[in-house]
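agent> step 3/5: call structure_predict on target 'histidine kinase' (Halorubrum glutamatedens).
agent> reason: downstream docking stage needs a structural representation; sequence fetched in step 2, passing through unchanged.
tool.input:
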Amino acid sequence: MDASRSDGRIPVPFERDAPIPIALGVSGGLLLLVGAVLAAAAIRDGGSLLIAVLDIVFFWIPGFSFVYAGYWLPRSDLPDRSHPRIVAWTGGGVIVMYGFIALRDLHPAVTVEWSIGTQAIGLTLGSVIGLVMGIQRAKATVRTATLEERTRELEANERELERQNAQLERFASVVSHDLRNPLSVARGNLELARDDCESDRLEAVDDAHARMEALIDDLLTLARQGESVESMQTVGLAEVSRLCWRQVSTGDATLSVEDAPPIVADRDRLRQLLENLFRNAIEHGAVDGSSVAIRVGILDDGEGFYVADDGPGIPDGERDRVFESGYSTADSGTGFGLAIVAEIAGAHGWEVRAVEGADGGARIEVTGVEFA
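tool.output (status=ok):
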């Protein structure tokens, strides 16, 4: 019976719909009564106080155990179907103990007196041990069933993830083929149109084509970065940062890299992460034609690294939104750069956040990084 009920009531012991806990409670009460009666009779008949105490002990131990079990079972997370098994283990324990006593009695060199005391000892040991083993067995069964259910849920989630990954792969294929082909045709016709005439409108068309190409590249990258990283290796952060800087159109921007120990990462995805951070800093950090200075360093607590710039920074209210797909504060931005950064970081098991830099600009921190 569950600890919580759909009708809002708290379970109470010995409920009408719990016959086995009721039976355990009643049996325990009877054992308590028998122990008290036997102890009183022993004293009344002139028996020793030790015999009276032992009668109480040997009957009250299983008595209290049964009463508590009857009280506890309705409140526990054990299902009602496990109650008969607990009773069976309890009865089995008593039978085993009585069988052991009987075997002792059959031995030619051993004499066993089947007194109330002997029976009480067998009842106490057998019932308590059987009750405890039955409860533990029931708990183990519940845990096993719970683990099996969680395993089925995990398998279902894994199948769903595989289905989603397959959809992403199909999406990437459509983007790379079905969108690039007409874009190539449009660009070819644009070049032919330029041969016939010169117009500012053609420049606007060319800019639109370039933006479409950037969107396609970012969408492809974003669609393929959600998978967990399997190939991890020791990578020099400073070395990869300088390599990525040469692959980015930096203009008048400058880069400084602190000396840092190597980190454990997927080299190719780390390059994509850094390149997107550099592009984002250059795109948003350069204001009115000014140059932007970018710095790569290790966090003071040693939990990761950062990429900071001295640009205008990110307003407080937008720092949590900058990692959302499609969100951008620049007219020319695609809105996928930092979303790709977040996906790559998540695939590594890292976390990423935006804070204010020491120079007042934006600072993107990547935490949870393992240093080699």
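agent> step 4/5: record observation. Confidence is low (pLDDT under 50) at residues 1-16.
agent> proceeding.
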